[in-house]
Amino acid sequence: MSRLLEGLIIKGIAGFYYVKSGDGIYRCKARGIFKQQGIKLAVGDRVSFEIIEGNDDNWITELHSRKNRFIRPFITNVECFVVVVAAARPTPVLGIVDKLTVMAEKNETEVVICVNKADLAEGDSGRNHKAQRAISDIEGKYAGVYPVVILNSETMDGYDRLKELIKGRIVAFAGPSGVGKSTITNNLIPHAEAEIGQISAKTDRGKHTTRHSELFTVDDEGTMIFDTPGFTSFELQDIDEDELQHYYPEIMKKMGDCKYGDCRHLSEPGCAIARAVEEGYIHPLRYHSYVEQIKEIRSKRQY
Predict the structure, then answer these.
(1) Which of 31, 72, 191, 203 is most exposed by smallest CB count within 10 Å?
(2) Coil, strand or helix: which one is 245?
(3) Crossing angle for the helix pair 94-106 and 284-301, nearest 10 degrees?
(4) What is the crossing angle of helices 126-142 and 284-301, to 10°?
(5) CA atoms of 159 and 35, how far apart (whole Å)
(6) CA nearest to 6, candidates 20, 17, 16, 18
(7) pLDDT at position 124, please?
(8) Are 18 and 26 within 8 A, CB to CB?
């Protein structure tokens, strides 16, 4: 006798998939049809699976449609992308932040900007002043575009707001090594026991030690967080210059006002985006990132 259930893959190790359905977690294998069709299952996939009484193995029989898919790490159905930078150690690189927000927009996920290590901005030393300026620059750059959360993982300041912003969503954290993604995960879900990499004094970068992707439940509101080995590529993938403007929300709101319908917002006459930058509606650093990304896309197209 068998039963057919639906659930969410929360972990995959050594050919087994652990599927959460209701209050239970079931260890499953994938039917051979998936391999025959070249389909690889991922953490985050919603599936149907068959439980056969008296049989040790449960079988995944159907993959439901995916909202989105990321390659490295291989996860699916992300609903909220939390882009993490540190106030210092390592120094924030906002160009990377903008590439990650573009990736999130392309995959139709909500975006939250998270500045960790706010404790490094306390005090009067030169390093502290640098961290303070970094926080101020980030808040200014993304004001009105994405919510920005400032976290102090020593005092836990900012965590209540972060929890509110991600509540009820399936969340992935992304950002350079060493910014504290595993620390944040541990503070939100202590039972995850994510390993924390150590900052290298020589390179001022961290080493993420998570070896596989897993989904953890945060609360009873349906909030879940991916703990992953990290997004290993910060390059723009499969994006052309025609579509890039659609992944900048503040440009999207204004681009219909340009004089020419094919305006790329670089140096064309009558460009509403250039005017919006001059008037302060679009932050100059965001516009600069857009221009640099256009250049990068064009450069790749030449090869």
Answers:
(1) 191
(2) helix
(3) 70
(4) 80
(5) 42
(6) 20
(7) 74
(8) yes
